[in-house]
Amino acid sequence: MNRNYGVGDYAFQVVNYGFLLLFGCLTLYPFLNLLAISLNDSVDSVRGGIYLLPRVFTLTNYKVIFQTDNLVSATFVSLARTLLGTFLSVLFTAMLAYTISRKEFVLRKALNMVLILSMYVNGGLIPYYLLIKDLHLTNSFWVYIIPGLIGAFNVIIIRSYFEQLPEGLAESARIDGASDFQVLFRILLPVSMPVIATITLFVSVGHWNSWFDNYLFNSKQSLSTLQYELMKILLKSVQQVSTDAARSGKVDKAMVNAVTPQSIRASMTMVVTVPILFVYPFMQRYFIKGITVGAMKE
Amino acid sequence: MRKTFIPWLSALFVLALLLSGCSGNSDEPAASGSDGSGSASGPSGSASASGEASKAANLDPVKISINSIDPKFSPDNDVAQQIAKETGVTLDLQYVVGDLTQKLDLWLAGGDYPEIVVMHPKEVGKYIDAGAVIPLEDLIDQYGPNIKKAFGKYYNLLKASDGHIYELPAPYLTEETPADWEAPWAVQYDVLKEAGYPEIKTLDQLFDVLKAYYEKHPTIDGKPTIPWSGVGGADHPDWDLNNPAFQAAGRPDNSWFLIDDQNNVTLNILSDYQKRYYQFLNKLYLNDMLDKEFFTMNYDEAEAKAAQGRTLAGSLPAWFLKYPEQSLRTQGKADRQFANIELLFDENSPDHSNTMTPINSNNNWHITKNAKDPARIIQYVNFLLSDEGQKLINWGIEGKHYDVTNGKRVVNAEWKAKTEADPEYIFKNGPSGPYYWFTYGDGAKLSDGDYATPNTKDYWASTYDPTTKELLAKYGKEVFSEFMPPVERVPAWIWQLAEPTEGRAEFKRVQQVFKKDAPKIVYSKTPEDFEKNWNSYVEEVKKAGSAKVEAAYDKLWKGYIAQYDQTMGLQ
């Protein structure tokens, strides 16, 4: 570490950091631009020219979003599915990963095949719908949790991580009389935090962003997720430039809106991304470490 | 103790999970017994029993499930409650947010569609084939005299090709142009004002007015003036190029097609009209008056230009100008709003561009097999199509949403102020819901001789700002719809019909050629150049298979007309 830097090294550093900084700005700008638009008066935004700062500051756009009746219950559903779903999914995924990482497990190969197969082949939308319906999971909160409990890809990542841990770790615990559950929960999981954090992040972001299962299976208002409700608000605001309306030149009287779709879109992006954004700083270090470690084997 | 703790815990957990999962399900049919979805066979015994009983009373409260394609609709505002009082029917809305076609397929596969399915005619075929929707003609005979009356001579058009009626479309009873319709050509107020409010009838006349204004005002608020712009050519080349061409020719809107008196279908984009419109754009270009981004900007960018007050004119429909004009008014630039007027290529050519179809068949209602008591639904629709029902669904409740002064219905001032302050208010508290589908239509009249909907000239005139009123007064008009030619009925617009499968790939290619070659033709430097580019474009469109497209649509249209004439008893 104590070596002297040459001119070339400095030049490299400058160019390197300069480039990364530029790249960072490039990715940050659209986000800040949307933030500015979301805080700007929507009618004023129509004439364009908003870059980093709002021109006519207002919170109306957010007000329109938050005054939706069942947004509170939808937020609760989303939070519940994210917390519970993530916890259960990681738990079950880890348990399955442990099982198929054990060499003495007889059906190891077969189960592996089944898992991998599920990554390449699926039954298609309508059979899937019928299956869920026959399981009586439609119009139920559990449809958010149970079908996605085990992700084959996640199982493989955790399994690979378990397999690259020293064999002796589990073995010594076993000699001391530990059961499989104890080996998993007290020995393996504590040393596998990087991979668990990674999977937690994957799964929780997936849960938070998901709306398709809501659209497919739950038509009850009380089970709406936040994303679904926000989608509804967006559709509400979108000027229905259905070709029909456009062609007949007819302006729907119901299309009078205080807030333009552009502004709704911007503020909604903020509402959706900001909460889940806070998860990243906490997971970041595990995240990077976890994915590289997991990728080392297989 | 410790050794067994974790397995026990997890076992307990799994058990809890299973239990709650099951209980969640067993709750469901009980809680939503009337909901019908997912439990089609379950409660049918008891439900049909109560259905029998309800035929006598007819006002028993009943909940009927229906899919809502509009997320704005509120399930029980005060108008919905009033209707429930009159009919006993409450609608249970199932919002579909996302791809309705996919959802319809899933419902059909699972058999758990709602009792009423709202869908486009293009989707109905599969539901009929599966026997999921029920024929309605007998029920209408029995319970729906108003339904028959509303459709009148067009009633037979409701019939599907097998002779049964499955759909309940909306009637279209008006004989006049609805007050809120506007012609597609927009000119900025200030341009008209400076020219002394001339009568502009043709594109060339408008050109001269624009040119004079542009020479005097090369910039507006420090930014270059844009004499002619569009709605965003990058997204919708046909809206900017094809639609104006047939509109200037005074032809009805059949999107990419022209239909002559013998019902022959040809592509508009190969017609002389298209060429003439290109010539007009070319003239604008050569005089440096065409938006430099005409072909590249998107919808938002086009909107921004109009909202800055820099756009002077263009083929800009009223729905496009809504937000820009709102913005201009708040900026205090009311004189930079747009007047939508009618323009043609030739002053004296006949104008048939303002058309209307016999019935408004779009998001029609269909009663499914899952309906516990279809008769109640027909009775419900029958009520909506009565004068009393029309007043409720269009105007609202008397004394609350509207008043009757001098024998005429007028929107209640207090109510109007509230809806203006909060655009969501009408959905929560006013005449707005799925039932609105069965409106007689703007411009139609009830048996008392007064308008069926609040969407009248008086109403629209009352919403205008002073600048707009002043402009309209100069032209001796009350509302912009008066600029339009008289409305005519056509059997259908060709774009409403199910797209034929043959020629689909060719049609796509033709559209691509159209999009690609348009700038080249418009940006021609000399008339010879223009001729050459136009000819090579025509050549290329023909090579892309235009004949096949025309043949496919010709067949489609002639088939439709034959059926139409037969149904209407014209043959």
| SS summary, helix count of chain A | 15
Widest sheet: strand ordering of chain B: 8-11-5-12
| Form type of chain B | globular
Oligomer: heterodimer
Number of helices of chain B: 22
Instruction: Label the structural class of chain B.
Output: alpha+beta
Order of helices and strands of chain A: HHHHHHHHHHHHHHH
Radius of gyration of chain A: 25 Å
Distance between the termini of chain A: 33 Å
Based on CA inertia axes, which overall geometry of chain A fits?
flat
Name of the CATH homologous superfamily of the largest domain in chain B: Periplasmic binding protein-like II
- Per CATH, the class of chain A reads Mainly Alpha
**From the coordinates shown, what is the CATH architecture of chain A?**
Orthogonal Bundle
Signal peptide (chain B): 1-26
Region (Disordered) (chain B): 27-54
Protein name (chain B): Extracellular solute-binding protein
Organism (chain B): Cohnella zeiphila
Key descriptive features of the protein:
heterodimer, A: mainly alpha, MetI-like fold, 0% strand, flat, disordered C terminus, B: 571 residues, alpha+beta, D-Maltodextrin-Binding Protein, domain 2, four-stranded mixed sheet, three-stranded antiparallel sheet, 47% helix, Bact_solute-bd_prot1 (chain B)
Q: Which helices and strands, and how do they pair?
A:
The complex is a heterodimer of chains A (298) and B (571).
Chain A: H1 7-38, H2 42-45, H3 60-66, H4 71-101, H5 108-120, H6 125-134, H7 152-164, H8 167-175, H9 180-191, H10 193-209, H11 212-217, H12 226-237, H13 243-248, H14 261-277, H15 279-296
Chain B: H1 2-31, H2 44-57, E1 62-68, H3 78-87, E2 89-95, H4 100-110, E3 116-119, H5 121-129, H6 137-143, H7 145-151, E4 167-171, E5 185-188, H8 189-194, H9 203-216, E6 219-220, E7 223-224, E8 226-229, H10 237-248, E9 257-259, E10 265-267, H11 272-286, H12 299-307, E11 311-315, H13 318-330, E12 338-341, E13 355-356, E14 359-367, H14 374-384, H15 387-395, E15 402-405, E16 408-411, H16 413-421, H17 425-429, H18 457-463, H19 466-474, E17 488-489, H20 504-522, H21 527-543, H22 546-568
Parallel strand pairs in B: 1-2, 8-11, 13-17
Antiparallel strand pairs in B: 3-14, 4-14, 5-11, 5-12, 6-7, 9-10, 15-16
Helix pairs in contact in B: 10-11, 12-13, 20-21
